[in-house]
């Protein structure tokens, strides 16, 4: 059988691409981190700590549900203005920014892109914030918490700020 060289090259390329695609695996999500007890004013919650750049970058992306008292605490060594966005988030979140003393100074509710016609919402802190707390939307209203609420941080969060 006489197969034209061009057709042979196309078939080989197609075979290579199929094999490469078949071997591609989605990037695994980080394993669930331990939950730490935290208080926000009189309210109790359980949070995962995001202490490294990779943990903070991944945040709550692709999470489809959280318990009413479950969230994530982003911990930064330096207190700078922070931006939080809803890229690849699937649930609405309350985002609270807190100062170095753990005092909440700003709370915003953000919706996932599926609820905003594909628009990725973003919020920027109005002041320097070494702590950002994400909880299910409505958490702060349900517990009647606002600016001035005091976070009682787990020791692991305070150690993360002190670690070089």
Main β sheet profile: 7 strands, mixed
Low-confidence blocks of residues: 15-29
Order of helices and strands, N to C? HEEHEEEEEEHEH
Count the E strands: 9
Number of domains: 1
Number of helices: 4
What's the CATH topology label? Jelly Rolls
Strand proportion, as a percent range, falls in 25-35%
Q: In words, what does this structure look like?
A:
28% of the residues are buried. A hairpin with a 2-residue loop joins strand 1 and strand 2. The model is unreliable at 15-29 (pLDDT under 50). This protein has one domain (36-162): Sandwich (Jelly Rolls), CATH 2.60.120. It is built from 4 helices and 9 strands; from the N terminus they run H-E-E-H-E-E-E-E-E-E-H-E-H. The protein has helices at residues 5-23, 53-58, 139-142, 155-162; strands at 36-40, 43-50, 70-80, 83-85, 93-98, 104-110, 122-124, 129-136, 151-152. It has 164 residues and is of the alpha+beta class.
SSE map:
Blueprint: H1 5-23, E1 36-40, E2 43-50, H2 53-58, E3 70-80, E4 83-85, E5 93-98, E6 104-110, E7 122-124, E8 129-136, H3 139-142, E9 151-152, H4 155-162
Parallel strand pairs: 2-3
Antiparallel strand pairs: 1-2, 1-9, 3-8, 4-7, 5-6, 5-8
Key attributes of the depicted protein:
164 residues; Jelly Rolls; seven-stranded mixed beta sheet; 9 strands; alpha+beta; globular; 23% helix
Brief description of this entry?
This protein has 164 residues and is α+β, with helices and mostly antiparallel strands. It has helices at residues 5-23, 53-58, 139-142, 155-162; strands at 36-40, 43-50, 70-80, 83-85, 93-98, 104-110, 122-124, 129-136, 151-152.
